[in-house]
Design a protein that fits this description.
With about 240 residues, this protein is of the alpha/beta class. The protein has 8 helices and 9 strands. The protein is globular.
Length: about 240
């Protein structure tokens, strides 16, 4: 890990307006301050080059929103996010929207990340092979299993090689053989001084790979530090 900061979240707050059913018109008319659900509140996080940062916490504690803020998929309502580096958010509730087939998804990602057109065919084949999806390029994304989509996300990250990679709750969907591949990918990214964010509930993964942990609780940072400082308290909560 170096002293170079790739991503900064500075006093970030993110909330969403609550709009539903027959109360929709009334909800829109209410001031935002009286009609919103706060996802994260006043969060500051620095992500360094070569760091493997783990975000831990109970479901709905704000971890996935932090990942989306880091990747600039969503904007904060207050505070500031600074990230000028190539970032890939590997998340089941983000990347599969608006595409049809496996091939279309891969090529849309290649286009987004400005990969040379001359490399599309060869690199697409490598993505498919690494993801163990041979013969499924024309299969609709919605027809893939969650395990297959997980493998595709990891494979895309591996071949795009962004500066910042955010893995959001993927480990539980991997078989044992692919977990070994995933460990290899993380180790390679660390060696190449890329920054990794692991949003996951698997403590074995966190303990074996993370070198810094941020514990989220009710949308706020409860504790940050080295694994030896945070995990003992987190495990007994």
């Amino acid at each position: 890990m170096t002293s170079e900061i790739l991503v900064r979240l500075l006093n970030v707050t993110k909330y969403f307006r609550q709009v539903s059913g027959f109360q929709k018109f009334r909800d829109f008319m209410l001031p935002e301050s009286k009609n919103h659900i706060v996802e994260v509140k006043d969060v500051t996080i620095h992500l360094y080059r070569g760091e493997i940062l783990a975000l831990v916490g109970l479901p709905n504690s704000g971890k996935s929103i932090i990942g989306k803020l880091m990747a600039k998929v969503v904007e904060p309502n207050s505070g500031r996010v600074k990230n000028e580096y190539l970032t890939f958010l590997a998340s089941h509730n983000h990347i599969f929207e608006g595409v049809s087939s496996v091939r279309q998804l891969i090529e849309s990602i290649f286009l987004t990340y400005n990969l040379p057109l001359s490399e599309y065919n060869e690199r697409r084949k490598r993505v498919v092979t690494f993801a163990e999806l041979e013969g499924k390029e024309k299969v609709a994304i919605q027809d893939l299993t969650t395990e297959e989509r997980t493998k595709l996300l990891v494979s895309l990250a591996y071949f795009i090689k962004p500066d910042v990679i955010i893995f959001d709750e993927l480990y539980q969907y991997m078989d044992d053989n692919f977990k070994e591949k995933f460990h290899m990918v993380i180790d390679m990214f660390k060696k190449e001084q890329r920054a990794i964010v692991l949003i996951d509930a698997n403590m074995e993964l966190i303990e074996s790979r993370a070198n810094y942990i941020t514990w989220m609780s009710h949308g706020q940072v409860k504790k940050s530090g080295m694994p030896s400082e945070v995990l003992p308290q987190y495990k007994i909560m």
